Amino acid sequence: MKKIMNKVDDIVVESLAGLAAAHPCLVKLHPSVKAVLRADAPKDKVAVISGGGSGHEPLHGGYVGVGMLDAACPGEVFTSPTPDQMYEAAKAVSGDKGALFIVKNYTGDVMNFQMAADLLAAEGIPVAQVVVDDDVAVQDSLYTAGRRGVGGTVLIEKIVGAKAEAGGSLDEVKALCEKVNGQVRSMGMALTSCAVPAAGKPTFDLADDEMEIGIGIHGEPGRERMKLKPAKEIVEMMAKAIVDDLPFQAGDEVLAFVNGMGGTPQMELYLVFNDLANYLKEKGIVIGRSLVGNYITSLEMQGFSITLLKLDDELKALWDAPVETAGLRWGR
Amino acid sequence: MKKIMNKVDDIVVESLAGLAAAHPCLVKLHPSVKAVLRADAPKDKVAVISGGGSGHEPLHGGYVGVGMLDAACPGEVFTSPTPDQMYEAAKAVSGDKGALFIVKNYTGDVMNFQMAADLLAAEGIPVAQVVVDDDVAVQDSLYTAGRRGVGGTVLIEKIVGAKAEAGGSLDEVKALCEKVNGQVRSMGMALTSCAVPAAGKPTFDLADDEMEIGIGIHGEPGRERMKLKPAKEIVEMMAKAIVDDLPFQAGDEVLAFVNGMGGTPQMELYLVFNDLANYLKEKGIVIGRSLVGNYITSLEMQGFSITLLKLDDELKALWDAPVETAGLRWGR
Questions:
Q1: What is the spatial distance between Cα B162 and Cα B164, in angstroms, rounded to a whole number?
Q2: What is the CA radius of gyration of chain A?
Q3: CB–CB of A273 and B21 under 8 A?
Q4: Which of A9, A149, B33, B274 is placed for a possible disulfide with B88 were both Cys, Cβ 3.0 to 4.6 Å?
């Protein structure tokens, strides 16, 4: 395991300092807790806040800015942030319209966001939470009761962020978040393991001719370990599981998102997108929007995930709305 | 070596098909040669065209669109495209104002772009070329007479593309390209090798405690192989070589670009940016703009490069101008 770092204990703090140094117009760091705050943090809107373990960058700190998140709370690598981080971050960016917590479904995240929400509610700050659970691979997992929150989170943060930016109320923003979570589905796979810096070794082993289908974003087990197959077969296996789950149907328009796990060349992600586009065309499912790249990662893991979101006019308009963050930007 | 692919011979073609399928509003494929063309290709401007071996994505196909490139010619992985690709791509996107070729300094690329330029000139199409050679690591290399063209290419394509979009003449666009190349400097490093799909094995070996400083974007040798050091020391070694070369001086304003080689977690790239920001601050060099991410890669190689561009008001305005490509977008 090789890492570009100084002291292993400082990797998250130094990386956050770099994010703030690179994007001073977009973000700033909270003065006392580990949290990335929107630089201009307008208080006349619902504050949209997320967080979770580090190691998934650009998620979540890279999505703080105009039209997406107002704050992100990073834990140590693959470790939940603490309730006080969430509480202080929410206090720093929330106004009268309150705060929405977007929570990936991992036990620690859910518990800690709940505690932070209770603290804020006790002070009279309106707060709502939505748990994202878009991963069709497994029902329960190493860190989860129920399905895991994965790639859909990126799309939810963008769309819900746009709704909040446009002046939506807390009830409206929460309802939209639940709606998007209800019609987004994902699944991942890996060719290689990630390696947590503090552990100093790969999280798991895969033979040179093997892959893991349905893997989680922490390298936790998925559905099945099998021999490496051609991309087309891998994509069909994953896309079928996703399409059958919602189910997506002929005539549906979708946002198709091929996400890299951190160590996969972009050339391969676009090759995957090609196979996915062919599969969806066969099924009569129309790609209305697309996203391809490293957006929710697992350190240096090689692999990818596929996410499909069923679109309608509301979601398309919110997806297309201007966004200006380190990890996603267009439109102003 | 594990790759997500179907047949190894089809990897470039399938990846290009995926790029076009994902971004139909931005790009289309040339009907007869391997080339990525701007979808709306306006003919009333200088056409800005680049190309080179595949495996460096998003460079160059990911930079075709509004405000950057009008066409990109991808070769096979780490292999120069052919003169007929460049000729046909230029014919497809050029109007009366002619075409500028932005050529990374590799022997095959330089030779083939020259042949294409000769063919176009013989037909009366105005054409100019600029060779990018920003890599301070080595004077000559495995594939190069003189310095290699690396990270600076991304910045040049953005800035020169903005000038062409604004209506600059071929002479003006060429002069700007030479100006930017004159004040941009880069250097790279690697922790691991890349693996060319057709070769089926890593290009080189590095021991578990070693790194290669000054490496090229094809995994070709750099300045020195040495024991892995803390990030701060690596950054200082590379930044010093870059700063001393131009030289950049106290009071200079720069665009600071930390580029991932394809397999490096973004967390580490921001950690590198933090060390770079601290180094530049000590030297009195001001970061006016920044870019952090995987923009010119070497397949799945782990490592990073640093690029510094000396800014002035002209370059800042062109950098900030709207751009809409798969790999870089902001501002409309």
A1: 5
A2: 19
A3: yes
A4: B33
